[in-house]
Design a protein that fits this description.
The complex is a heterotrimer. Chain A is mostly helical. Chain A has helices at 6-21, 26-52, 67-81, 83-91, 95-122, 145-173, 183-205, 218-244, 251-282, 288-295, 304-321, 324-328, 330-347, 350-353, 372-401, 406-413. The mean pLDDT of chain A is 93. In chain B, a hairpin with a 5-residue loop joins strand 2 and strand 3. Classes of the chains: A mainly alpha, B alpha+beta, C alpha+beta.
Chain lengths: 414, 212, 303
């Protein structure tokens, strides 16, 4: 038998991936059961939302996007932020980072899945999905920024699936990967990561009728916050991997990512300050959304506690990241990472999407507070994202450690 | 056919001197060079020729009395000095129309006609000519379709149009629009419903009668 | 290996888990059955308005009539009047005489078969302080007799922009500008992403957050496919200058309802039209001109 024939070995690779995905210790089962349960609650809420219409959300013709699009925006940032591992690993030849870079790429895959799900649940008519498939429906490209987003998000998903899949498959066969088959894609993915978040920013920034979004600084802010949440999430993830698997994670990658964060947290605060100065010092109608967000307007102040929480968390994490003590204590670092993830989630989620609609284009103030349906669906989608991430790591890490390989499979059979 | 209304009304206004009986409410459109044009009619409000008696018939409809039914017999010798002197159906009428007096428009002994400033008499239904004497800009806008409202067709080659009369909207004795309550308040879906039955909604308030 | 269950027990546990999971999933998705009842393969495969042949469109019109009969118990006629050659519509509103009575909004509500529970209407009337154009100082939520002293009224509806942001952003070309200037939506093609609603600077678009509810006897039976037919749940809708009326030469419903004659509608290409007289002789402005949307809806004042 020709052992190198991919027709034989690739199905074997997939089969071992599937079997490994469903095997583990009781803790693994408990974790997966928990995620499945939350995802099912979300699925159920979504089914209700489809049947009864989006009246089950708190969105209105005034605030026509809400929690879903807020989370979508954050998710794109998370996906793009993972590239902060790819750049050191491939551009700067950081070997320790190179060993763990796949974790970041898998995180990007899971984050893109989350983003796509958030778009699907935000659609009034997901049954008409084929209308947006290029070549089959009527794809309004290149005029509509949303079509760009469809292209770059799916493209990024395919790119990362290819890179991860190819490298894992080669490792499974115990062969040296052919650079021609992945290096160009890796470099493409770096540019692509920037593009997904820029395009997402242009989606909002291009709307002249929404002064709060209509800012050239939106894309740079999105990139800066992406490079906070991406590294922060990966730092936490790498520690979990170190703790729960036999996969070796050095301190180097964590140190590198922390250095990235030290810069990006400050950059983000600086850009946020610039936006605030421009809006508040100038005053007038264009500052209304900012005033509403930070101080409330006409007695309406639903977002005020959110945004000040975000500001407090972002400032604290910036401070913690620059404390000498944090260099020695992983606990403090983890706290800083957690605070910055939550801070950015609020700032570019609820704190960015909702003030775009409040006040409305006719300057009416209609507030938005998500309903239980929206929270359930949101939790369900994030649970789904963690399911994808867990399974992806469950498949990938044993291959990387060599525990799962064609040779081992054969030995098992023999 | 261009500017049908202005031509029509200006003609009526000018002709008013010699031919007070000219009817402009149903004048056919002048022959058009291309295709057929439907007429523009002006609605003649009932209050020009009759008055509300304050009584209703068996079906609850208000009973109106034709002016002539009383005034052929009752012909007062002088016009009242103020609204306080008015009797019968005219009692309690409010009057707020600049510095005008009854005699500015009404004629003693000819209660179904009006008198323009130059002394020419007008039938009641032609009251718009009387209004136009003082309210030139409004009349100009009216003739260009930007005052007073209408029903029917924008495209007169496809159908007719019915214009409102000044008196349809303005009471000649108190022409200022009287404040009224607006209809259909916005009832946006501000609060999420608890279930299929949604208590938060206001009951739609449709005004029962269409305009006019 | 003592903490690991033996392989047989493990497999049976996995099967149990899978069965439980599958049934939980089926249970979670159960509400979809109610939703899918309204969906047919015919509707799923329906083409974009512009791609349908005459016969296909005729069938769709019949299908909409049938569906309206089934869902609402009303016998309606759904037509598809085309843009008139040599006609581009324009609309002007006289702010000096508008009294804010909202009769136009009400007429729209009735004519366009809006959901009765929400008082929905394509027209939103703002009460503004005299002496300012600042929308910030306006409110749509006034509930006192009008006109109120010191106030003027600004009804806002779709401006049928020539450079329409809503048309630009639609990812599936479900909304476009017709040759007579009307921006329309193919309600059977819209995917409900609401990007157009975010893009519109005039709050002109509405979303069907649920299936509209209208008693059969209140339904306006003369309907247009691209205008006032009852919209499906989950799609965006908008003012079409009542194209089912105006493309047949009639005035829009809001104009007929206006008790002061503040509204002037007509063909911008006809130099003798009333709308042209207003544009040429009155002090006219458009809302948010600085955004470059080039509206076909104008506001004007008397002297």
């Amino acid at each position: 038998m020709n052992a190198t024939s991919h027709v034989v070995t690739y199905p074997r690779f997939l089969w071992q991936a599937v079997t490994r995905a469903f095997e583990g210790r009781p803790l693994f089962y408990a974790w997966m059961t928990f995620l499945t349960a939350v995802a099912l609650v979300g699925a159920n809420a979504w089914a209700h939302q489809l049947a009864q219409g989006m009246q089950l959300t708190a969105m209105t013709d005034h605030v026509s996007w809400g929690l879903y699009i807020a989370n979508f925006t954050f998710g794109v940032g998370l996906a793009a932020g993972a590239v902060m591992m790819v750049i050191p690993a491939y551009l700067y030849d950081d070997h320790e980072m190179h060993d763990v870079v796949l974790v970041g790429e898998l995180l990007a895959v899971a984050a893109i899945v989350v983003c796509i799900l958030f778009i699907v649940v935000d659609m009034g008519r997901p049954d008409r999905f084929w209308h947006i498939i290029p070549g089959i429906g009527r794809f309004n490209w290149p005029i509509s920024m949303l079509t760009w987003d469809v292209l770059v998000l799916n493209g990024y998903l395919v790119l990362n699936l290819h890179i991860c899949g190819y490298l894992l498959y080669m490792k499974f066969l115990d062969r040296k990967p052919d650079k021609r088959w992945y290096i160009p894609f890796v470099f493409l993915s770096i540019f692509w990561a920037i593009s997904i978040h820029s395009v997402t920013a242009f989606l909002y920034g291009g709307l002249g009728g929404r002064p709060f979004w209509n800012s050239a600084l939106l894309a740079p802010r999105f990139i800066a916050t992406a490079f906070i949440t991406g590294p922060a999430f990966v730092i936490l993830l790498l520690q979990l991997v170190r703790r729960f698997t036999s996969f070796h994670v050095g301190d180097g990658p964590i140190r590198t990512l922390t250095s990235v964060m030290r810069v990006t947290v400050l950059l983000n605060l600086f850009m946020l300050g610039s936006e605030l100065f421009t809006a508040l010092y100038t005053g007038g109608a264009h500052s209304t959304a900012v005033k509403y967000l930070f101080f409330g307007s006409h007695g309406q102040n639903a977002l005020v506690p959110w945004i000040w929480t975000a500001v407090a968390f972002n400032l604290t994490s910036a401070l913690l990241l620059h404390l000498p003590a944090t260099r020695r204590s992983l606990g403090l670092l983890d706290l800083a990472c957690l605070l910055s993830i939550v801070g950015v989630w609020i700032e570019k989620g609820m704190g960015l999407i909702i003030p775009g609609f409040v006040p409305s284009t006719l300057h009416e103030i209609v507030e938005y507070v998500p309903t239980m349906t929206e929270w359930k669906i949101t939790a369900g989608i994030w649970a789904g994202g963690f399911l994808v991430l867990t399974i992806a790591l469950k498949i990938a890490l044993p291959v990387l450690t060599g525990e799962a390989s064609l040779a081992n499979e054969k030995r098992g059979e023999g | 056919m261009k500017r049908l209304l202005p031509t029509l009304l200006a003609a009526a206004l000018l002709a008013g001197c010699g031919q007070p009986e000219q009817r402009h409410e149903a004048a056919p459109a002048p022959p058009a060079s291309s295709g057929r044009r439907y007429p523009v009619e002006i609605h003649i409000p009932p209050k020009l020729t009759s008055i509300d008696t304050g009584k209703v018939d068996a079906l609850g409809r208000p009973i109106r009395a034709e002016c002539v039914s009383c005034h052929t017999a009752r012909r007062p010798e002088r016009l009242p000095a103020s609204t306080a002197e008015l009797r019968a159906f005219h009692q309690g009428m409010s009057f707020q129309h600049g510095e005008l007096a009854c005699g500015s428009c009404h004629v003693v002994g000819a209660q179904d006609t009006l008198r323009k400033a130059d002394g020419t008499l007008l039938p009641m239904r032609d009251a718009m000519q009387l209004c136009a004497q003082c309210h030139g800009p409004q009349f100009r806008d009216y003739t260009h379709g930007s005052h007073g409202g209408m029903q029917g067709h924008w495209d007169l080659s496809r159908g007719p149009r019915l214009r409102n009369h000044c008196v349809d909207c303005h009471d000649p004795h108190t022409p200022q629009f009287q404040p009224s309550n607006p209809v259909l308040p916005p009832a946006d879906r501000l609060l999420p419903p608890a279930g299929p039955s949604r208590p938060g909604f206001t009951v739609p308030r449709l005004s029962q009668e269409p305009h006019r | 290996m003592s903490d690991q269950p033996d392989p047989k027990r493990r497999v049976s546990l996995q099967i149990l888990g899978a069965t439980l999971g599958a049934s939980a999933f089926a249970y979670a998705m159960e509400p979809l059955r109610a939703w899918s009842k309204d969906l047919t393969m015919e509707q799923f495969l329906q083409k974009h308005y512009k791609e349908m042949s005459k016969d296909e469109l005729a069938k769709v019109l019949q299908r909409v009539e049938r569906d309206t009969k089934e869902s609402y118990g009303a016998t309606v006629t759904v037509k598809d009047p085309k843009p008139l050659p040599g006609v581009e519509f324009g609309y002007a509103l006289n702010l000096s005489v508008c009294i804010g009575c909202r009769k136009c909004a009400e007429a729209c509500h009735v004519e366009n078969n809006h959901d009765r529970r929400t008082n929905n209407s394509y027209i939103r009337v703002l009460e503004m302080d005299q002496g300012t154009f600042d929308l910030e100082r306006g409110t749509a939520q006034y509930a006192h007799a009008v006109p109120a002293p010191g106030k003027y009224y600004l009804p806002v509806q779709c401006h049928q922009c020539d450079n329409a942001p809503c048309v630009k952003v639609c990812p599936v070309q479900a909304t476009w500008k017709e040759s007579d200037g009307i921006v329309v939506v193919d309600y059977d093609w819209c995917i409900g992403c609401r990007y157009c609603e975010a893009a519109c600077p005039y709050h002109a678009r509405r979303f069907n957050w649920t299936k509209p509810e209208i008693p059969a006897e209140q339904i306006t039976t003369e309907q247009g496919y691209l205008s006032n037919r009852i919209r499906p749940q989950g799609v965006v809708e908008k003012c079409t200058f009542c194209l089912h009326r105006t493309r047949e030469g009639r005035q829009p419903a809001c104009l007929e309802a206006c008790p002061t004659g503040a509204r002037v509608f007509g063909n911008l290409l006809d130099p003798a039209s009333e709308i042209r007289w207003v544009l040429e002789n009155k002090r006219v402005y458009v809302l948010k001109e600085e955004l470059g949307t080039r509206p076909r809806f104008f506001y004007f004042f008397d002297e």
